[in-house]
Amino acid sequence: MNRLQLIYKGKTGTRVSLQPLAHALLTNKPLEKCLLLAGTDDAPLGDLFTIKGTLDKDAVDITIDVGGAHLWHAGADWQRGTLRINGEGGDYLAGGSAGATRGMRGGLIHVMGNGGNHIGDKMNRGIILIEGSVGRACGKRMLGGTIVVAKAYDTHIGHAMRRGSIFLLGTPQKNTTTTPLPQDPRFTDCGAHDLPFLQMMTRAIDTLSPTLGKTLHKTRNWQRYAGDSIVAGKGEIWLPT
Amino acid sequence: MNNNGVHIEDTFAEAFPMKVARLVITADTPAWAQHAAVAMTGFATSVIACGCEAGIEGTIDKKETIDGRPGISVLLFAMSDSQLAKHVKNRCSQCVMTSPTSALFSGFSNQHDKAKKVPLGSQLRYFGDGWQISKVIDGVRYWRIPVMEGEFLCADHTWQRPGIGGGNFLILARSRAQALHAAEKATQAAQGTGVIMPFPGGVVRSGSKVGSKYPALIASTNDAFCPTLKGQVKTALPNDVASVLEIVINGIDEESIRSAMQRGINAVCQLGKQNGIIAISAGNYGGKLGPHHFPLRKIMA
After folding, report:
1. Does A165 touch chain B if contact means CB atoms closer than 8 Å?
2. DSSP string covering chain B, please?
3. Given this structure, which CATH class describes domain B2-14+164-300?
4. How far away is chain A from the Cα of B255, in angstroms, using its nearest Cα?
5. Which residues lie closer than 8 Å to B4 by C-beta, 6 or more apart?
6. Quick one: closest CA in B to A105, which residue?
């Protein structure tokens, strides 16, 4: 399998929107010419990132070394293949384009560091693995797919989610006003379970991230919370018991 | 040809094309996987009246199953695509979904050039009455159907491919007990990947011929091999044969059947003439039934 590596070489602290990346992968245009928003200006991807390796459009496998960049909209409209992010995932990870009714539509996004706010907004399919913590509104307006968060989570988790699954392996962020799920009126406690699906999910994630897999393997029973009830949602949040 | 005093007749087994699907059933314990598999493969001995032929192919270690639980592999054969889809759906919904702790996965991929989709969870999900949840993992869609015991986890679909039904050989023995003992040895040895023996215990005592004196019947007793009719009909049995049992083998390809027949016949021949085994023969219809022929002497050469 061919892998493509994007190593950030721009100014430290620059806000880089990766929103056009998923669309660029669908065209025959050279990737280095794909225009990204860096700060307030457009810049070709080739000016911001060193590109190593080759892109296999049939089996997309891209690794981004974030370096000093401040990413946002990484993995927006992601449809297939794997996107690995070495560093902070940034805000609006795996969301959709402006006005889009759906966000991520398939594949895998694996963030080695923390995620930002609004991860998986309107996510429809696929898997997001976050090895660190996430900010506010993770899984907001989610329509499907799976998000796994290894560490802490913040307020408005699963806000207005209709379907989809969020696995929270950590605890709420300190110094926030997060309502613990058992007291959160948006979500209904459906009890603790040990299901074949959870075992299958654990095994699948173990092959993608041994670190997360190790934590998942420790949990036999999972507490299920269904919601978000404000949209009559049938989504679910799983917490280890 | 003679093997340990057992005469191998110069004949061939005649088999016919079928469609086959492989299903993997898992459960919390091997016993519950077995319960589901046994129920699912019940009343599936012959397409003559059952509509399909099914059997347990083998057990799968929990390290090798998708959900990490003990599993059983089942093969289900039918004469057409539509019959296969119908029986897979009916049997999975009534026998596997109902069985405690069970989960159901596809045993075939789409790698075969003639692979076709067979619906599983894509049909069974409606039982969830809107509470079913779909998950795509590694490109495969699974359905989680809420049931009273917890959840029934089921692959969205499995795949079918061309298979072969009706591979067989006949054990001609001096007594009923000796024939039965040899048949038990044969089925144990023939069991393996890619084949099933759909009849009770893998053994048939009522082998059939095509047609009947009664117009309504499409098959009737194979009188040439009935020991009690020796003298009354044109018999195929030597004088000293008092009992005949047939091993019917369905397989995913010719090689699987050939190999299973070889293992089974070898096991019978090891018992030898001293244990009452007189000869090995095979059922065929003069080449009129199917294109797959398995000559006994070539297999045992």
Report:
1. yes
2. -EETTEEE-S-EEEEEEEEEEEEEEE-SSHHHHHHHHHHHTTT-S-TTTSSSEEEEEEEE-GGGSTTSS-EEEEEEEESSHHHHHHHHHHHIIIIITTSTT-EEEES--TTSTT-EEEESHHHHGGGGTT--EEEEETTEEEEEEEETTEEEEEESEEEEEEEEEEEEEEEEESSHHHHHHHHHHHHHHH--TTEE--SGGGEESS-EEE--SSTT-SEEE-GGG-GGGBTTB---S-TT--EEEEEEEEESSHHHHHHHHHHHHHHHHHH-GGGTEEEEE----TTSS-SEEEEHHHHH-
3. alpha beta
4. 33
5. B269, B270, B271, B272, B273
6. B136
Task: Return residues 207-226 of A near B (CB < 8 Å).
Answer: none
| The CATH number of the domain covering residues in B18-161 | 3.30.70.520
Q: How many CA atoms lie within 13 A of A108 on its CB side?
A: 23
CB-based contact, A195 to chain B, within 8 Å? yes
For chain B, the domains span: 2-14+164-300, 18-161
* Cβ contacts of A127 on chain B, cutoff 8 Å: 137
**Binary contact (B135, A165; C-beta < 8 A):** yes
Asked if A234 lies within 8 A of B150 by C-beta distance, the reply is no
Separation in Å, CA of A106 to nearest CA in chain B: 9
**What is the count of residue pairs from A and B with beta carbons less than 8 Å apart?**
49
Q: Looking at this predicted complex, what is its ipTM?
A: 0.92
Of B136, B138, B144, the CB nearest to A197: B144
Cross-chain Cβ contact A197/B151 below 8 Å: yes
**Does B18-161 match B2-14+164-300 at the fold level?**
yes
- From first to last of its 301 residues, what are the pLDDT tens digits of chain B? 889 999 999 999 999 999 999 999 999 999 999 999 999 999 999 998 999 999 999 999 999 999 999 999 999 999 999 999 999 999 999 999 999 999 999 999 888 888 999 999 999 999 999 999 999 998 899 999 999 999 999 999 999 999 999 999 999 999 999 999 999 999 999 999 999 999 999 999 999 888 899 999 988 999 999 999 999 999 999 999 999 999 999 999 999 999 999 999 999 999 999 999 999 999 988 887 789 999 999 999 8
Do A158 and A226 meet the contact criterion of CB atoms below 8 Å apart?
Answer: no
β partners of residue B89: none
> Which residues of chain B are within 8 Å of residue A144 when distances are taken between CB atoms?
134
Residue A197: its chain B contacts at CB < 8 A?
Answer: 67, 135, 142, 144, 151, 153
Question: Which of A79, A166, A197 would you mutate first to test chain B, the one with the most B CBs within 10 A?
Answer: A197
Residue spans of chain A under pLDDT 70: 1
Widest CA span of chain A, in angstroms?
52
Q: Between chains, do B137 and A193 touch, taking CB under 8 Å as contact? A: no
Report residue B153: phi and psi, to 5°: -100, 130
Shortest CB distance from B153 goes to which of A146, A196, A236?
A196
